[in-house]
Amino acid sequence: MNSLPITINLEIPNDPEKIYECTKSILANIQEHVALDLGYQRRIKMIVIELITNSIKHASGDLTQIHLTIDHPSLSIQKIEKGVKIEFSAPSPQIPFKELGKTLNVSFSDVKKHDIQPLSPYKFQFLKPAETDAVDIDHIPEHFGLYIITKAADQFTYQYDPELGESSFVVQFY
Predict the structure, then answer these.
(1) Residues with Cβ < 8 Å from 81, sequence gap 6 or more?
(2) What is the pTM of this model?
(3) Closest by Cα among 174, 168, 173 to 78
(4) Which terminal residue of the chain, N or C, has fewer Cβ atoms less than 10 Å from its own Cβ?
């Protein structure tokens, strides 16, 4: 048995035909080091599918990097991609943030869907939606995958590096 933490670095091609194969591979890599119950597996699959789909839609490079850090019972999944930073619809605050530590309500479309907390000018945490914030399946907004990740993860953060032109999405399980 390997000592913890274990870090696994993978390159994921931004190809919709490979979403299932990549998701299966990432889950297998994790399960080589730690046993996962079915509920945990399902949450990880949903998150990985959404992270890969997000890259296919928004990344400017051919490959996306996935970094897994297994430190049982915690697990971190980090996706790094080249591309533009997240932008919100007006009148939402934009990156770089001026107000830190305060809960902000942002939108990617005409529909409000996310509460975030800026941690630095270029980094924020998605906050869990209230249970009363039900989503109407007939009016699913753009970036609904980020909502899914927020609901499935214990913690979900985003950071943009303006010098490298990279976006980093970090999902934590505790």
Answers:
(1) 55, 58, 59, 60, 61, 64, 65, 166, 167
(2) 0.89
(3) 168
(4) N
As a whole number of angstroms, the distance between CA 105 and CA 103 comes to 7
Phi and psi torsions of 77, nearest 5°: -120, 115
135-174 in b/e burial notation, b at 16+ Cβ within 10 A?
A: eeeeeebebbbbbbbbbbbeebbbbbeeeeebbbbbbbbe
Q: Is 46 left (phi over 0), alpha (psi -120 to 50) or beta?
A: alpha
Q: What pLDDT, in 10s, does the model give residues 78-120?
A: 999 998 899 898 888 999 999 899 999 998 876 667 899 999 9
Query: What are the CA-CA distances from residue 18 to residues 22, 105, 146 (Å)?
Result: 6, 34, 20
Distance in angstroms (rounded) separating the CA atoms of residues 16 and 19: 6
